[in-house]
């Protein structure tokens, strides 16, 4: 008879190797303890114990705080390392896939610190909505409808859980379920409601439409309206690695995978990319088929919608909601020249150079 196995809610939690300590925490604490003990052994002949404790206690407490502390599910040592990496990296980045050019001599006097090229994980979005991750593979984003679980009966709830469990058991690669909240802009609906109110067949309906538009306008000015969206992100590498065992991938397997990845050429084979897109489409179809019995509708995003999701993830506090109508980062925006504009008055290369160097 099979026995139940307790699975933690955080499936990405590292394994505990000694009591409540993970391998990373044990390494930080043990290395700090060994260094402090070795320092005490060397200096105990001429440094009093009280003086050594004044220095050693803050160091040990800081190491324990970094190893055991967490914030938003991330250990403090990882946050400290990320803060150090962010501090040492260039602050000013520009979208320049071809690289940063040297500052001309006539701009040398007013030159600020040179910007660095902005390297994003996503290199582009295809017309089908597939996100190109370069050498890391491809990904696709799909929006999922929600199910009101609390209003269902006990039997219906068990059926929903069983349907979702069947999908989880069918997974052959990791997936990401993202629940995101963003500002809800009703200005378009309010304008459309006011424009169509005059064409309603009865004055009472017209008055009700204007009142409803006024209510929505007042609601948007008085409160911050939010909407919630559930996204299913599927990612597929270009090259399929070895399948992890029951206890997860071994350190030797991870080391061999890194060595093989480092030996691969930077040129990505187009056949491998098409094969990855085929596997990704098959996984997306399986997700839609297995989640449909639970009442969850999986709708893949097109190129414009996927670009909007990526833009909002990079700038979540923007007052302008990103959509498919906005221009991309590499799009050239042109306008009709004014009649009195003289093309020979200014050198267009000056503007292009100034924009390239952020002046």
What can you see in these coordinates?
Among the domains are: 16-88, no CATH class; 123-185 and 225-241 and 267-314. Residues 243-249 and 350-359 have low confidence and may be disordered. Helices cover 44% and strands 13% of the residues. Helix 1 runs antiparallel to helix 2. The protein is of the alpha+beta class and 359 residues long. A hairpin with a 5-residue loop joins strand 8 and strand 9 (138-144). The radius of gyration is 29 Å and the shape is extended. The strands form four sheets. Strands 7, 8, 9, 10, 11 and 12 form a six-stranded antiparallel β-sheet that branches. Strands 1-2 form a two-stranded antiparallel ribbon. Strands 3-4 form a two-stranded antiparallel sheet. It has ten helices and twelve strands. Residues 320-359 are annotated as: Disordered. InterPro entries: Uncharacterised_PrgI. Keywords: Membrane, Transmembrane, Transmembrane helix.
């Amino acid at each position: 008879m099979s026995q139940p196995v307790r699975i933690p809610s955080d499936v990405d939690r590292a394994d505990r190797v000694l009591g409540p300590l993970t391998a990373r925490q044990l390494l930080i604490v043990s290395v700090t303890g060994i260094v402090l003990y070795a320092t005490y052994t060397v200096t105990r002949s001429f440094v009093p114990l009280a003086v050594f404790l004044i220095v050693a206690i803050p160091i040990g407490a800081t190491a324990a705080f970094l190893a055991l502390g967490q914030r938003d599910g991330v250990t403090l040592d990882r946050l400290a390392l990320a803060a150090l990496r962010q501090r040492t990296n260039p602050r000013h980045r520009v979208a320049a896939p071809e690289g940063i050019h040297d500052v001309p001599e006539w701009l040398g006097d007013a030159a600020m610190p040179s910007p660095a090229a902005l390297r994003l994980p996503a290199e582009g979005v295809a017309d089908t909505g597939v996100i190109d991750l370069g050498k890391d593979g491809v990904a696709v984003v799909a929006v999922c409808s929600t199910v009101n679980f609390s209003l269902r009966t006990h039997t219906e709830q068990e059926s929903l859980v069983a349907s979702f469990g069947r999908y989880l058991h069918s997974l052959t690669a990791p997936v990401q379920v993202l629940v995101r909240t963003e500002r809800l802009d009703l200005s378009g609906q309010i304008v459309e409601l006011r424009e169509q109110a005059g064409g309603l067949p009865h004055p009472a309906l017209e008055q009700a439409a204007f009142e409803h538009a006024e209510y929505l306008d007042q609601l948007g000015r008085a409160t911050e309206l939010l909407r919630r969206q559930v996204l299913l992100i599927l990612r597929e590498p270009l090259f399929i690695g070895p399948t992890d065992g029951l206890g997860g991938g071994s350190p030797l397997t991870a080391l061999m995978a890194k060595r093989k990845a480092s030996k691969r050429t930077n040129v990505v084979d187009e056949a491998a990319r098409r094969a990855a897109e085929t596997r990704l489409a098959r996984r997306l179809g399986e997700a839609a088929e297995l989640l449909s019995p639970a009442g969850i509708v999986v709708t893949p995003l097109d190129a414009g919608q996927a670009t909007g999701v990526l833009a909002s993830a990079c700038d979540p506090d923007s007052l302008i909601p990103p959509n498919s109508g906005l221009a991309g980062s590499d799009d050239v925006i042109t306008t009709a020249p004014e009649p009195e504009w003289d093309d020979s008055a200014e050198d267009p290369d000056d503007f292009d150079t100034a924009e390239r160097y952020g002046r």
